[in-house]
Amino acid sequence: MLARRALHAIHVTALGLWSGSLLMTAAMAAVTFPTMKSLAPMLPGYAGYTGDHWMIAAGKVANTAFAISDGVQFVCAMLAAGSLLVAAVFAGLNWRRPGVVVRAVIMGSALGVLAYHLLVLSPRMAVNLRQYWLLAEAGKTSDAEAVRAAFTADHPTASTVMATLAGLSLIGLILGALAGADGGPERAEPQPAPAPRLETPALLRQGGGGGAR
């Protein structure tokens, strides 16, 4: 029981850090880009680039934050999934409980979305972003803008993925906290109907009070 409680604490904490890191990263980006735009910086290292320098400045800051967030997400996902699995296999958590099944489905969905983000979407966007910065630094504005357009095309998908991961991790956190270390109530099993009570025959009822004559 102590081991299951420890694993549950790890599971809930990991989901809390996962959802929190996503929400804080989104808030940081929402503040950084408008702030940089209002400051309208001119970057000496990109003097030959005639595009928006504030996009480069904001992107440099946001890219670092997103990279840290990806690392936090990976570690938290492994801890959350691993603790739930170990609790079920070695610590007696009952997989037949409806709450545990729902949480496992949510956890699997989150892992699938995170895998797509880390293995497909994020690497492609990182390549385009680095190429954009290199071309902008070289003063090749038209080429830089073409690569920037390819990066921007992935942005709606990235926003959807980020929102989905935040939602799934937050739902998993809430369900896990409500269920507790035992995983929630057991599935109700149908109970057999009680056997009918036989009625006492009438002759026995009539003569039941008589004694010896």
Question: Beta-sheet strand percentage?
Answer: under 5%
Overall geometry:
elongated
The structural class is mainly alpha
Q: What's the main sheet like?
A: none
Count the helices. How many? 6
Gyration radius (Cα, Å) is 30 Å
| Secondary structure tally: strands | 0
Summarize the amount of helix as a percent range: over 70%
Poorly predicted tracts of residues:
209-213
Separation of the first and last Cα atoms: 68 Å
What is the H/E string?
Answer: HHHHHH
Oligomer: single chain
Integer count of domains? 1
Nearest-integer average pLDDT: 88
What does this structure look like?
With 213 residues, the protein is mainly α. It has one domain. Helices cover 75% and strands 0% of the residues. The chain is built from 6 helices and no strands. It has helices at 2-39, 53-89, 98-137, 141-153, 155-179, 202-207.
Fill in the keyword field for this structure.
213 residues, mainly alpha, 6 helices, 0% strand, elongated, disordered C terminus
Topology readout:
Blueprint: H1 2-39, H2 53-89, H3 98-137, H4 141-153, H5 155-179, H6 202-207
Helix pairs in contact: 1-2, 1-5, 2-3, 3-4, 3-5
Question: What's the quick description here?
Answer:
This protein has 213 residues and is mainly α.
